Amino acid sequence: MKWLDLLHRWTGGLLGLVLALLGLSGAILVHKEDWIALPHASDALVSDPARIALATGRLLPAPRGGEALIYASERFGLIQLRGPGDAGAYADQAGHIVTRWDSQWQRPELWLFDLHHHLFSGDAGETVIGIAGLAGVFFVVSGTILWWRTRRTFRWRLLPSRLSRPAILWHHRDLGIVIAPLLLLVTLTGTMMVFRPVAGLVLWPFSPPSAIEASLKPPKLASGPLAARPDWRAMIEQAQARFPDARLRILSLPRKPGDPIAIRMKRADEWLPNGRSMIWFDAATGRMLGSRDALDLPAGARMFNQVYPLHAAKVGGLAYRLVMTLVGLGLALLGSLAVWTFWFRRRAR
Questions:
Q1: How many separate domains does the chain show?
Q2: Are residues 221 and 165 in the same domain?
Q3: Are strands 288-292 and 88-91 parallel, antiparallel or unpaired?
Q4: What is the C-alpha separation between 303 and 44, in angstroms, rounded?
């Protein structure tokens, strides 16, 4: 137990601040659709393919390649236009621009997302987050084992009784055990999204990792060069006919010659907010090249597609969002106080 306690404290002292940042930013991002205060953000969702195609044509009058549209949803009534770089815009569902930006620093939801997913450091930051997620899983398991020895002294504490090192340690122990199941869910799902081998290990009983990876890769399809004026209406109507119960979520233009136009849809039984049902079109002619139904994927792949909605509270409505908000704030409190007591708040001699 002594070595487990030392490992728990030292790992927390080194990675606690990272987990605190992830918890706080995650708690804010859970509600981003509610605090993006822009005109038309609360508009009702438009589902008519003709109106969606008209808005698409207005936002992409002369497509160059690399652009993407994230269409409005039931919780957010604006379309997001993404350019090849950091530039982008929000538009109403008729295709009229509401606001533009040239850098992610001009939109708080964008830099918060980058902080939560990459620590402003790209792939290196994502690796650090994955390591912190693994450490979080270890904290839950080791903390539960260490708590069991002193379980008879448990007291419900939302905040430490005072800012002394013993009081903070008791609060850390008791608050940690209260939110341990949800902390395990958050840290494990976050790690699964960063480190695919971890996801493969967890989902192995349902599908082999190779089958999951193969089912999620886009197929190799040959496409002509991007047309100057693609027939958006024909493509959107074909996509809707292929999946009548689905909602259009993302339209992605080819990043390089030979790539097709991709439309991503969310079927009624999918949890993933942007869905994983895909349709590919020839960029030159608009002819449908292929499709993939997310509900026909192997069991492990379908379960992997449910990881993000569970992690980001994209299912369960307001009640689950509030629960995950409390978990994020609890993680921020546990991580920050752990770092403070480990490095700065030493017991008086």
A1: 2
A2: no
A3: unpaired
A4: 30
Give the strand order in the sheet containing 261-266.
97-101, 88-91, 79-82, 68-70, 247-252, 261-266, 277-281, 288-292
Whether residue 40 lies inside any domain: the answer is no
Asked whether the predicted pLDDT for residue 285 surpasses 80, the reply is yes
108/339 Cα distance (integer angstroms):
27
**What sections of 150-243 are H helices per DSSP?**
165-178, 180-194, 196-203, 209-216, 232-242
On whether both 161 and 225 belong to a single domain, the answer is no
| Domain span at 162 | 2-33+122-195+312-343
Q: Which residues contact 121 (CB under 8 A, 6 or more apart)?
A: 128
Q: Which residues contact 38 (CB under 8 A, 6 or more apart)?
A: 78, 90, 98, 99
- Whether residues 11 and 156 fall in one domain: yes
Pair 28, 54 in one domain: no
What digits encode the pLDDT tens for the residues 78-92?
999 998 788 999 999
Looking up tokens 């419900």 gives 156
DSSP secondary structure letter of residue 137: H
Percent of the chain with pLDDT over 90: 81
User: What single letter denotes the amino acid at residue 37?
Assistant: A
pTM of the complete model: 0.91
Distances (CA, A) of 71 to 151, 223, 278: 50, 24, 15
Does residue 115 belong to any structural domain of this protein? no
Q: Has residue 39 been placed in a domain?
A: no
